[in-house]
């Protein structure tokens, strides 16, 4: 299938724009790849330290026999459901490595925090920059530099982008990402949201709300809505960095352990195929494929920040104009909550990532001629893994097989590219005198794509919630929440605002949110212009907005305007962050340790990076 002309044009301009930085990156990858292996390059004391704790046979393999040694970087902890299954993965991987005459070591661990735990809490202000901490932790782990390849064990919001950014600093290493899968279906996402909205209105109490939340989040695995964590997994499939079809296999599934073993086999390669270095896999076409997959599935808005940072780590420069141009032509192929009622388990059953990737390839919306961690290229990611129906006595038959997905099993969840839910993707760039921002429109009702109303300006999400509780917002209103960008307070998600705003919308009021902060990947049905750049604390336009200003958010024309006469707007004073708020920011819950990250952070559109 011929590549879509817009996809091709966007790719070519990214290649041209990135030429200086990408060339420098590839030169470093090549220089690192040309060195002798670590155990042969290092002094004897270095080698002894690196392998002192290995069992004797493993030490013999890696030192004397020069066997490949695979570094494992893990986000395991047993507090968070998505990462709890990872605890036994290293033992599986080490055992499988020995079968192939190789060794594996846990090179290091990285933190994994859960935005579901910290939403609306002070700890949420550490969340975005935890991505860069994870990237640095990955770099520290791999800096021991005795590895022939790497396995990245992690799943959720900031963890996968952080692991990916860190791994790309070691672009000469073959690297495979190893997920754990989603938890089984509990209370439906729609029913959970209804209870949240009732709680926001005071119609149910804490016991009822806690019971609903616990029924939704009930076991090991990722949350089942299509938020940032599960968008991560979709994008890794589209980039060819997983064992194909691994993303949404539940932790307790019979083939889950075998898929983890297959990850080790994949990074080791075979006599006929060598797993390529991650720095070559993640090229401009690979990044475009990830962007297309995000748009075609109505994925998390957080990735308009994270994947900009990921691309920068590989010397590739993308921006929101690229996302916007792709969104105009990429069809929306899925309806998964919050972009529908299905959860990711239903998505997987209906066809999952493999169906979407096949349709995008066949429709000319993805680059097929890309490297992946597998010999079969991206077409391998259009199939679903399964256990063979029989195993030979000598165990010579494969432990896994991959089957064709066929037609959609549920067209209310996934549709072919010839009959999409929408001819365009789920994200829209908004431009105007309030700056540049983005909106996720795939879950917003059609009659809410244009909102024009007087605004209320809030300096924090707590202030908005208090106004809602006092019945001050029972009207058409655009709620502006500022001082929420990366430099101001670390750019926390403002998902706690979703229930009150949804209640107002449910009452028939025309409401919208405008903020320089983030919203959760689970948000959607209330129109929200988010990531407004430049942010207020940097003198951005939100610092000029006043209560009562009429704001027009138009997702059809892609505009975000405050309807104030131009001369008056130009003369208006730029507000400063309130002293009390500034004093409170960065105090307590470890926030002081992130002060330098806030000071050095780039804009949201530049990836909110603290390391550029």
TrEMBL record:
PROSITE patterns xref list: ILVD_EDD_1, ILVD_EDD_2
Record flagged with keyword Iron: yes
Membrane-crossing residue ranges in chain numbering: none
Cofactor remark: Binds 1 [4Fe-4S] cluster.
Pathway: Carbohydrate metabolism; Entner-Doudoroff pathway
Cofactor(s) essential for the protein: [4Fe-4S] cluster
Coiled-coil stretches noted in the UniProt entry, renumbered to this chain: none
Residues at which [4Fe-4S] cluster binds: 156, 223
Its EC number(s): 4.2.1.12
Gene3D superfamilies associated with the record: IlvD/EDD C-terminal domain-like
Positions of the Dihydroxy-acid/6-phosphogluconate dehydratase N-terminal domain: 68-380
Reaction catalyzed: 6-phospho-D-gluconate = 2-dehydro-3-deoxy-6-phospho-D-gluconate + H2O
An individual GO BP term: D-gluconate metabolic process
Family affiliation: Belongs to the IlvD/Edd family.
Protein name (database record): Phosphogluconate dehydratase
Species: Rhodoferax fermentans
């Amino acid at each position: 299938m011929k590549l879509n002309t817009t996809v091709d044009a966007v790719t070519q301009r990214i290649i041209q724009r990135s030429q200086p930085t990408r060339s420098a990156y590839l030169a470093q990858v090549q220089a690192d790849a040309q060195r002798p292996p670590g155990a042969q390059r290092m002094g004897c004391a270095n080698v002894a330290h690196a392998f002192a704790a290995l069992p004797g046979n493993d030490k013999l393999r890696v030192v004397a026999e020069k066997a490949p040694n695979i570094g494992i970087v893990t986000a395991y902890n047993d507090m968070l459901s998505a990462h709890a299954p990872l605890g036994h993965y290293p033992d599986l991987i080490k055992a499988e490595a020995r079968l192939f005459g190789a060794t594996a070591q846990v090179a290091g661990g990285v933190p994994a925090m859960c935005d579901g735990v910290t939403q609306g809490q002070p700890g949420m202000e550490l969340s975005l920059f935890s991505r860069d901490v994870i990237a640095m932790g990955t770099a520290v782990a791999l800096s021991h530099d005795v590895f022939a390849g790497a396995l990245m064990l992690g799943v959720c919001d900031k963890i996968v982008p952080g692991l990916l950014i860190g791994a790309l600093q070691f672009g000469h290493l073959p690297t495979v990402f190893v997920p754990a899968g989603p938890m089984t279906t509990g209370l439906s996402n729609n029913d959970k949201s209804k209870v949240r909205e009732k709680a926001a209105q005071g119609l149910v109490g804490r016991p009822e709300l806690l019971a609903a939340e616990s029924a939704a989040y009930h076991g090991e695995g990722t949350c089942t809505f299509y938020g940032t964590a599960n968008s991560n997994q979709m994008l890794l499939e589209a980039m060819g960095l997983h064992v194909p079809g691994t993303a949404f296999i539940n932790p307790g599934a019979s083939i889950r352990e075998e898929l983890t073993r297959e990850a080790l086999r994949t990074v080791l390669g075979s006599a006929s195929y060598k797993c390529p270095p991650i720095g070559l896999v993640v090229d401009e076409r690979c990044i475009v494929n990830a962007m297309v997959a995000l748009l075609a599935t109505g994925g998390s808005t957080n990735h308009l920040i994270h994947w900009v940072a990921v691309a920068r780590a590989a010397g590739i420069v993308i921006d929101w104009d690229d996302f916007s141009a792709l969104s105009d032509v990429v069809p929306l192929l899925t309806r998964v909550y919050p972009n529908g009622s299905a959860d990711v388990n239903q998505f997987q059953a209906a066809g999952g990532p493999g169906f979407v990737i096949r349709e995008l390839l066949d429709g000319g919306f993805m680059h097929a001629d890309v490297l992946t961690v597998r010999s079969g290229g991206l077409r391998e990611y259009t199939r679903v893994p399964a256990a063979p129906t029989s195993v030979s006595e000598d165990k010579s038959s494969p432990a896994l097989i991959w089957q064709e997905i066929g037609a959609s099993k549920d067209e209310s969840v996934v549709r072919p590219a010839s009959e999409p839910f929408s001819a365009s993707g789920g994200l829209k760039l908004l431009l105007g005198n309030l700056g540049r921002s983005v909106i996720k429109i795939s879950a917003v009702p059609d009659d809410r794509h244009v909102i024009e109303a007087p605004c209320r300006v809030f300096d924090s999400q707590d202030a908005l919630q208090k106004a809602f509780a006092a019945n001050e917002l029972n009207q058409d209103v655009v709620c502006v929440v500022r001082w929420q960008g990366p430099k101001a307070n670390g750019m926390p998600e403002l998902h706690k605002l979703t229930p009150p705003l949804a209640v107002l919308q449910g009452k028939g009021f025309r409401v919208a949110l405008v903020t320089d902060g983030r919203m959760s990947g689970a948000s959607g049905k209330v129109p929200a212009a988010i990531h407004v750049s430049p942010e207020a604390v940097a003198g951005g336009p939100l610092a000029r907005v006043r209560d009562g200003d009429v704001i027009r958010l138009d997702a059809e024309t892609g505009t975000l305007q405050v309807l104030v006469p131009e001369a008056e707007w130009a003369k208006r004073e730029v507000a400063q962050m309130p002293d009390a708020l500034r004093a409170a920011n960065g105090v307590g819950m470890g926030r002081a340790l992130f002060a330098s990250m806030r000071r050095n952070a780039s804009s949201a559109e530049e990836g909110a990076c603290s390391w550029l």
